[in-house]
Design goal:
homodimer, alpha/beta, 344 residues, twelve-stranded mixed beta sheet, 12 strands
Chain lengths: 344, 344
């Protein structure tokens, strides 16, 4: 957990230059207090475009050497050379936009590999465009897991809201593949990562584990996965000292968790966990990837092409993603102060 | 829909005599305004027990001929002869309690078959005890569907809350069996019944249909059921004049519905629909069975053996179940007035 305690600054990838990422950065960052240096990675053209549209001044300093940003001050921008001349097409999905997002992620990962103690916040990108641009990953999370050497199977997607916090044992498989993906090993990993996360946030209460079947299998009357896998996994986790309880019926545990009885819920699959989470925290939740060698948070929305330039999209999820990354990554550093070189 | 417009009184089965049903009836009914006659069916001993414990007077008139109750006034009680001598064991699951609940349901069904225009509200029973007492049904809903001649496949379970209303395309199968149960025929039935229900309540907005897979299949990238079954079903329903839309991602549609954009949501399976519903409406939702030849509502909780006699259980779900049954069944009748014999 060494890297979690670093305080060497925050990296924000702007994502798709034609999506909401750059615009929300322009609307949010000039007025936001940041206790550590912030490195933006992405298209400078997109930022200049939205500054102009919003009538605000440029709020960053451009740099060519991103690995030295933490000795600088305030907000700096690194635009990877390969995307400096990429044309803008605000509000439109383009392969160039996907390539821009991919190049920015690559640059961020290079930086995160070569220096511990940094945290990553990612702006929205378009998965289809990312893939068309030659990045064969289903999405952000899988890309980061594979490229950082951890592997997709060893990370856990978590959505963190003000009242509800939900980890997913499976993310985006077709529903019919979910039961086969619920394994003791996978559940133990997710319980361990989720317990570590809530402990880091100082949240009280155990982590609740959902059942897979209605009523958590009703003592074996509905399906067999609870008895064969989930109950043993919870038992094993508790014997390892993890503060987990369950399995609980998926239709009532979220109410209990929202009342404060549990610090987080481990859901077995996407809609079981995210239907209640988004009902309560639409636009206010932060996507966190647990298990990476660095802190990574993300906005909870997509590129929102149709909203670009309209002024109606809210920057609240971006703000919360930055705040959570700061909280998880530590805020020991101060802007305008040289950082401790030993953590580089 | 003829029977829905009747106004011939309400039947409330007390459910398990050792569960919360009789106690909640004693706490709620003496002070509740009922615009139609109410027939209680169940153990008189259980009611007397709780009246004594609560220090209240007997609030019903016992009758031996339940089919004539609507010519009477106020609240009457019919105790089926077979359970008159059943011993009470408050707070304990017993086979006798299961038999009591089953006999009460039988009596209610006989009455509903022989006279249209009546609505049924059911108190909580214990499924395992019901089965041990010789009633081979998974629960209330299946029992009512089979015994009324409609069949379980032709009814749709619906949970009606103040803000969210959710129908389930599948109810309590193991999760791994869900994808195989999503058929065009089943979805059309559920859409038709749900549209009829919200129209009867006068609710604005279309019925939203959930996808089965994460992100409603993401245009075919995740699973095939949306493209093969759900999209064609929605198309067919719309061509039949039903006001339905979808399929929508299960993780965001409930937020939209709670904002008032949809009159109800048709979820594909139990936790997808009930996790968000119970998060918002824990203890305030009413279970409605759509597709029966009579109105049937139910409390949204179980027997609650551990709460019996403690005074801590709330009667709000029972109150809402009675109110919704009245609203759906019509309230044309008045207590103390003879009912129109032609609707018997």
């Amino acid at each position: 957990l060494h890297s979690l305690h670093g305080s060497n600054g925050l990296i924000l990838t702007l994502g798709d230059p034609n999506g909401l990422g750059p615009e929300l950065a322009c609307r949010l960052l000039p007025g936001m207090f940041l206790p550590v240096p912030l490195l933006l990675i992405g298209s400078e053209r997109s930022l200049l475009h939205h500054c102009h549209a919003l009538g605000i001044d440029r709020f960053w300093e451009s740099i060519d050497q991103p690995h030295r940003f933490s000795t600088g001050s305030g907000i700096v921008l690194f635009t990877p050379p390969a995307i400096r001349d990429t044309a803008l097409d605000p509000g439109e999905p383009t392969v160039e936009g996907g390539r821009c997002a991919g190049e920015s992620l690559d640059a961020a990962l290079d930086l995160l590999k070569s220096s511990s103690g940094r945290s990553l916040v990612t702006g929205p990108l378009n998965k289809a465009m990312l893939q068309e641009a030659g990045y064969p990953f289903p999405g952000h999370t899988e890309y980061l897991a594979e490229r950082s050497g951890v592997g997709s199977r060893n990370v856990c997607m978590h959505l963190c809201g003000p009242k509800l916090r939900v980890s997913l044992a499976t993310t985006h498989p077709p529903l019919r593949e979910v039961p086969g993906m619920i394994t003791l090993e996978r559940l133990l990993l997710c319980m361990r990562l989720t317990c570590g996360f809530v402990r880091k946030l100082g949240l009280p209460g155990p982590v609740a584990v959902c059942g897979l079947n209605p009523h958590a299998g009703e003592s074996g009357f509905i399906g067999s996965e609870e008895g064969e896998i989930i109950v043993p996994a919870v038992y094993e986790a508790r014997s390892q000292g993890l503060d987990v309880e369950g399995p609980f019926p998926g239709d009532t545990v979220f109410y209990q968790a929202a009342q404060g009885r549990y610090s987080a819920v481990l859901a077995m699959y996407h809609d079981q966990g995210l239907a209640p989470l988004k009902l309560l925290h639409f636009g206010d939740a932060v996507n966190v990837t647990l298990g990476l060698p660095f802190v990574r948070t993300s906005v909870d929305h997509g590129t929102g092409y149709d909203l670009v330039g309209k002024g109606s999209a809210t920057a609240s999820s971006l703000k919360r993603a930055l705040e959570l990354a700061l909280r998880l990554g530590g805020t020991g550093g101060r802007p305008n102060e040289p950082q401790d070189a030993s953590t580089e």
